[in-house]
Structure formats: structure tokens, C-alpha cells
User: Fold this.
Amino acid sequence: MARVLVVYFSATGTTKTVAGRLAEVINADVFEIIPAEPYTKEDLDWREDDSRSSVEMKDPASRPAISGTVDNMDQYDTIFVGAPIWWYVMPRIINTFLEAHDLSGKKIILFATSGGSGLGRSVEKLEESAPHSHIIAGEVLNNDMSDDDLKAFAEKYNKDE
Assistant:
């Protein structure tokens, strides 16, 4: 059976909780994307034009540094990638992660945590960062989902095509 990895970036802990539960119910390995420079509350204030997150999201070339990469990425066929939604897309740190690995031939299934928007243009904004992979727009997952719901999500998007 193919090995599955759940990768996530969590700014406030919400995505971490969902990613951990998803990995548990589908028996997947887990990797947390950790920014080299942690985000502060002020960095995440999307109402401020000069906050770190606002500056990063306004610059399509922004690639916030990360601490660490996945060893032996070649052992995984399917990678669930989760993050909060910032400005209707996944944060630029997801691009950093994707570009740090050879994901050729991998199925990448996106999931997000969001208070009000879906995945938006995330697939479009991430495709150049993971050439030769197949990126699939999954769904917004929330803390109140049952284990059965999380398992159904994984099965829906990680089926043989």
C-alpha cells in the first residue's frame, strides 16, 4: 500500500489539530512546516498593510524560509497539504515547502482551515511550485468534523484514477 504523508502549516494551532486528526484516522505520517522565523500575532494581522503576512501575500515571489524538510520524500505517493487560507489562497510558505522537495509524480491533495472562504485559487498559485505533480483542490476541514468525515474526505480525493 502506498505511503501517505500529511503536511501542514499552522499559524494559530487550528490547522495543526485538523492535520493531526486526519493523519491519525488515515494512518499517515505527519510533517509540520515550521517557519524559520515564527509568526507573531502582529505578523498575522491581515488588517495591517505592513504586517508580515500582508507583505508576503502581496508579493507572489515571497518565499518565507522554513526549518527542515521531509527526509525520503520518495517513499510517499500521496501528500495531503493543509494550511489556513490567507487572501483566498494558501500562504506563501506552502510554496516554499513544495519548492524544497522533488514532488514529481506525486498526488498532492490540498485541505484548508478557514473561517469563511474556500481554497480559492490555491491550486493555480501552487502548480508552478510543484511541477510534474498532480495537485487536487480538496476541501475546507474544520475541528468539528468526525473521524468518519475525515476518513471520507481522504477516500474521496485519494482514490485510484
Summary: Residues 85 and 116 are 9 Å apart (CA to CA). Strands lie at 3-8, 29-32, 34-35, 66-67, 76-84, 107-113, 134-140. The longest helix spans residues 14-26.
